[in-house]
Predict the structure.
Amino acid sequence: MTYDLHNSSYDFYNGTPWFVYECTIQLDEDGRRIVLFLLFLVLFMVGLAENTLVVWVNWRRRHSASGVLFCIINMSLSDLMVIFTMPFFMLEVTMDQVWLWGRFLCKVTYLVYVINFYSSSFFLAFMTLERYLSLTRPNKPACFPVQHKRRWILCAGIWLLSLFLALLENVHIDLLEWDEPGCYMVPEQNFTEWFVSVSFLCLIFQFLGPASIIITCNVLIARAVRTTPDVQNRRDVWLVHVYSLVFVACWLPYHLVFFLLTLDDLDPHLFSCNTIGVLYFSLNVVQCLSLFHCIANPILYNFLSKSFRNSLINTVISRISLPPTSVPSNTVNDKAGTTAVKERKLSNVSTSHSDIGE
């Protein structure tokens, strides 16, 4: 796509144009739509399968699970919410931002997206903090204690905070009829002030705050695991750094692009027209890439865990196999006690977040 001359006015300083509104860059909009459609398709299919398995396996032990596993369940539920909205975004991108599903779904799908935008990061930060406290201070009270009202109050507080932050944006979402109907964020007045305020709220609450907790706790966890005598290889050390790296890789490009666009709103002469064209061209791409946390989180925090894989196998076997005719009770108790001891030993040395749920 060729960006044409948008504005013929110039600001001169000593006879020299301060900023020229002329775009010369050519960007392939059709290629971008094809790539985005394929990315959304992969996100929807793989993310739906992974998070459904995570919720299915972990839901049965939600009442007795540790705070780490409790956060994993909530994080997967949050990811499932946004995954169900992906077909709408997929078709919107394919039809070049045309929205065909009415005003109600315009507001609802965007609200669900922004709720996940915050809640997934909040629960991930609390899960990492809970993991750190469980490993270093096992005798201290947990953030999400088992069988305690505080767990549900804190959980409800996280969801309500995510809803409140999402409503700050969603109140300005509406269906606008221009050449074609589109779902846009357009406040009636003070657009610049609103956009800058929301951008900084997103940067602080969704990225900088959770990232500082996640990175700090993972560094401390790696330091504690490195001194554990039961650790036989360096996998347990570098895995916790992968947790931090994946979070930053998913969200940093998104917030970087938004931050640069915010600077452009504050000072329209800061960037050239070509730079602004590239930023807006890449905006949908980095938004889509940020949603890859819906695929990465189940792998990192569940499928890499031995305890989760064992639970998945046992759950599948229990669904497809016939119940035994008779098993002595003392034999069952002995096996259960032996398994529990093994799982507790595994939890003490493993850096997998899901393992601590045992």
